[in-house]
Amino acid sequence: MRKHIFRLLLFIVLCPALQAQQLPILDNYLLNPVSISPAFSGRDNIFEALVTHRTEGPKLSGSPVIGNVNIDGRIGKKMGVGGSIILNKAGIYKNFSINLNYAYHLQVAKLHFLSFGISAAMYQNSLDISSVILKDPNDPMVMNQSKISESYFNMGASLLYNYQNFNFSIAFPLLFNNRSFYIDDAPYEYVLTMKRNFLIYSNYTLDLNEEWKLKFDLLFRYVQQVPWTIEVSTLVKFRDSYWFGLLYRKPTVIGVTAGLEIINSIVINYNYEFVGSSMMGSSGGNHEFTVGYRLKGTVKPKKVLQIKDYVR
């Protein structure tokens, strides 16, 4: 009986927030899609490293704070490797993960490429119950414990198709369902476990002229027990060194992003998102700041279509 009371309290109070936070996806995929699809590893640059810090609703107590380090690079002409570390904290919930990526790039026809990516990850999810008032502190699940944590191993896979400035990718960040050692009956099992999810991502860059470009991104994602979401964004880029864009995420998120690249290698980017009532200042919106370093390849750039080519 005591176990069921504890489970009920966890479900009512924690589950709506926890399920949405177990596999965070940051807006830095607009800079390097390898963060959502390992098939992009080593495709565009010899080496790239991004460090991202994100806060969601900073005016609200216990709001999510996410830190991410993402690195990838090229090995030879056809392979790429990478990895990332993510720390996600929201209230009493914390998620820590380490991911390793591998990609193989194959040319299937002139200007047509397929890339295959796989990833391996170790996750640790935990609940800090030291400051939680429990209905029954003598419950054997929590007695003499200040934290409940579980660790999991999982794998992911992705496929990427590329034609000139167009990319289309399907990714499965988690291929397997992990089962909780503490809570094993639905719907409470989703508090600490990791479940299958998938993403569909596409982008296209239109060269307006030699200096100006328009980049369009579309992302569909289904994560854990959260309703599916879709994101669309547009970036205006000048000389590949300055950019400004707008983002919309279903159902009520509107974001702006701006960034620059210094001496053709140092990347700085900032995102701000209005989320529902945050437009009235009640939560402070979402803030994401990214800095990074790029070592670009020396491959001769291929000819791309410009807007004048479409109006002939």
Describe what you observe in this structure:
With 312 residues, this protein is mostly beta strands. It has one domain (2-310): monomeric porin ompg (Porin). The protein is 7% helix and 53% strand. The protein contains 3 helices and 14 strands. The chain has a 14-stranded antiparallel beta barrel with strand order 1-2-3-4-5-6-7-8-9-10-11-12-13-14.
Largest sheet: 14 strands, antiparallel, barrel
- What level of helicity do the residues show? under 10%
Kindly report the name of the CATH homologous superfamily: monomeric porin ompg
Overall number of structural domains: 1
Order of helix and strand elements from N to C terminus: HHEEEEEEEEEEEEEEH
The CATH architecture: Beta Barrel
Extract low-pLDDT stretches: 1-21
Provide the residue-averaged pLDDT.
Answer: 82
Strand content: over 45%
Spatial shape:
globular
Q: What is the CA-based Rg, rounded? A: 21 Å
Total beta strand runs = 14
- Which structural class fits the helix and strand makeup? mainly beta
Oligomer: single chain
The level 1 CATH classification is Mainly Beta
Query: What topology, given as strand order, has the largest sheet?
Result: 1-2-3-4-5-6-7-8-9-10-11-12-13-14
Task: Quote the distance from N terminus to C terminus.
Answer: 75 Å
How many helices in DSSP terms?
3
